[in-house]
Each structure stands twice: as C-alpha cells, then as structure tokens.
Amino acid sequence: MTVIAILAGVLVVAGVILWTHDRLTRPRRIARGEPEVVEPEQQCCGMHLTCEKDSLSTVLSDGTIDYFDDEELDAMAGRAPESYTAEEAEAFREVLLTLIPGDIAPWARSLQLRGIELPPDVKEELLMIVAEARAQAAPAMNER
User: What is the enclosing helix (H) or strand (E) of 14?
Assistant: First the structure.
C-alpha cells in the first residue's frame, strides 16, 4: 500500500514540475515562432462527426453554405431522423456514397448547418466511413 502511495506522490510531483516548466517556457517558444500547442478543450474530442477545422470549408467567404449537389435534401430540414421513408434514406445514402473522401466531413457539417438530420442507418454508415478514414490517416500521422 505504501508503494502505491509513493508512486502516486512521485507522479503528482512530476506532473506539477512538467506543468510549471510548460508555463515558464511557453512565452519563449511563442517568441521564437514555434507553433503553440492546442489546449485539450480546443481539440476535437473525437465524439463528433467532424472537427471544427474540417468543417470550416462548408461556409463560404460570403457567408453562404457550401452545397454538394444535394439541394434536394433541403426538403428534409427540421424532420426527425426516424421519420424518413426508405426512399428518402436512400437519397441520403446516394449522396454519401458519391462523395469523394475529402468531402464527407464537410458534407456532414453542411447538413448540420442546414438543419438536416441523417437517417439513423445512414448516420451509422457515415460514422463508419469517418472512423475508417481516421484509422487510415493515423499511421500516416505517426510517420511524420
């Protein structure tokens, strides 16, 4: 039991030392032009369909929302996801499956901005595609 208490104490002390070091050296790193590390509350938590940085491309510079040749989906704005018919769900699926991989996350954000919720089964497919893309991107990020 004392070993656990000693280890916990060492970890707390190490954490305080690292935190203090970061706070003291941050102004010098910024002055040298090094990029500032993003605080955890500003990072994407991974629980949403997209990160904010992925979603910025859906709002154009003039304030209009970017469309992905899916104007017919605007008729579904404000509807509950469970209320879609099979044909309507298929319309969502058709757009999703014709998007290039880089447009999937911005398309999801575009739907959110337009007040359109995905049918549950299409939402699951979207989440699987996004998770797969993130899994493929993770090894590439580790190689850098």
Answer: helix 2-31
